[in-house]
Amino acid sequence: MSEQKQKPAERTLPQPPPNMRLLSRKEFMTLLIGGGATLVLAATLAQPLDYFAREIAQNRADGHGGDPNFHWVMVIDLSRCIGCDYCVWACQATNDTRDDMRWNIRVDDETPLGTTFHVTRPCLHCAHAPCVEVCPVQATYHRADGLVIMDYDKCIGCRYCQTACPYGARSFNWGERNDENPRVPEWGQPEVPRRPRGVVEKCTFCVHRIDRGLANGLMPGVDEEATPACVTVCPVNARFFGNINDPNSEVARIIASRPTLRLREDLGTEPNVYYIPPEGLEA
Amino acid sequence: MSAHTQDIRQTAQFKRLGLRHSSPLLRLWLGGLVIALMIGMVAAAQVLINGLVVTNLTNQLPWGLWITLDLSSIALGAGAFTLSAAVYLFGLKRYEAIARVAVFIGLLGYSSAMLALFLDIGRWDRFYHPIIYWNVHSVLWEITLCVILYTTVLFTELLPVVIESSRRLRSVKLLVRIAHFLHRLMPVVATVGMGLSLLHQSSLGATYGILAARPVWYSPAAPVLFILSAVAAGPALTLLVTILSGKLLNRELVPADVLEGVAKFVGFACLAYLYLKLWSWASTNYYSQVPEQRFGVEILSQYTPYNFTFWFGEVLFGALVPAVFLLWERLRRNRNVVILAALMIIAGIVINRWNMTLSGFVIPLDWSPGVRDVFTINSYEPSLIEWGAAIGIVAYSWFAFTLGIRYLNLYPEARDLEVPPGATTPAPAPEESSAPQPSPST
To answer: Which end of chain B has fewer CB atoms within 10 angstroms, the N or the C?
Structure first.
């Protein structure tokens, strides 16, 4: 029974010579024709596929959105900060985050002399952001104006960006959000929709305010409506925001005239948040 | 060569062990696995319905048991590329006797990893995004693409076996031709497979090794350690299941010299792994005065069982002792010793992948510019649902393996192969000849 079954197969397959075992001529031709057919198919599909190709090209990691004439930076004056947490709460209200997924946090540190000072940390919008480099789907990317932004529609929730971020600036939506925001309405109203379950999120420098403000002829860092909530709420003016490309902007003047430090400069991430150190701490 | 046609003829002698031939022990085993699978399905449903909130993972420690599981199962699937390369690239033809089962185990390992990842990503509905949105700079993207392509390679390698093993499929002329063709194409497939494996097995180590902000991970040795340990542990698992199945089925599935050859190879791979591990440890722990590294090591030894599990689980019992077992000829001859050594290596690599994942996360990131220890040390223990899903995924691979060994011709030399082409009557069937013999080790 089985003998009969194999005989035809044996006959249809010419035995290749022992020194050319890889492919017989017939198989080579089959491969060639198959390859040709694939190419023809690809060419036919090129038109519809072009849509995706353009989509991909548009979403390349660099220069996706944002006005290249601006480069947004933040300056945080640690010698002024009193640790009042207003910026933390304003951010929570504006961007609608829960206590355990704050985009902007405060820690209390001390100088070598033993004086306590307060560090608040938004996303640093690094020029060489590890999160952007490791994301397998380009869900987080650089804009031309220096912002590091999340695309919540692309994110697959692998959390490699959380692993890679040296500053712990990223939060994950572990579950569906149905909590009540404890900072609303005292510290403001949510200005952006809540993020869906399963994606990573982080501080955006209030990108919605920047983009809407610029569209309405306002200047971020100068006009409150166009400036991040954490900056406008600060009661001691410890936070500054603006366009470092403009030498007359407040941030450019501060960075040019005062010693500043950036967090973990040894890592080469080139953050776009500058800190004015407190007394007793070298820049 | 006529070997291919002979292949098929010999395959005709392959007898599937249907469930009718099941012993009470097998029924108990399969029953247990079915229960485990059900536990896994309940846990997976919890994850898919409620999201990852059911895990004990946090923003500070976002990867845990499931990442350990998929790192381990990919490493343990490395027997496929190692033994395929031995057969089809280095021309060690006799290892074909064990390469098939290695490919099958590889496929189970990779599919287990994919299952674990499917649960682990927050948006399982977007699992295909890496295929569409390429970030060529990301090692994780490269790993995803490699794993997808390599799983295809494994399918290609296994397809002829599936066709061979089924009388119904064998009767379809086209399928037989495809099987022949794929078999002839094997050197190419094995080369592609080895390339892909070398890439992603080491990139998995690079996932941790490239992160400059994590002092105990950041190391050029990480990718190489991952590939070396996988090359040791993959064939070790192949050996283990081959010997165990042989004992349970009371047959010699693979010729003794092949088993011993693989065992010896695993022993040498363990030594290579140990050698690099020694220098990696020496340069990052013993000789290093880098404050961050020292601080990290201090935290690990003070707050976690890392030191103990590293030295005893990974080094001593995970590699050194099994290397001695497998390289000492008198010990290697004893199948029970090989079983023990393989078990130790497998345990060692699982412990290593767990330690690797956890160690980097336990040590908090210190980005604050002052001198105070601002950040708390992170800790993690998997939740019941995480355990449940992991148990289900492991049960899946064991269940599939059990079925595979009964229905697929995974051990082409398990029968009497020495049928001279001119012989009028075939030699006695191997089942009859091998049954009365005592197993070689005892």
So the answer is: C
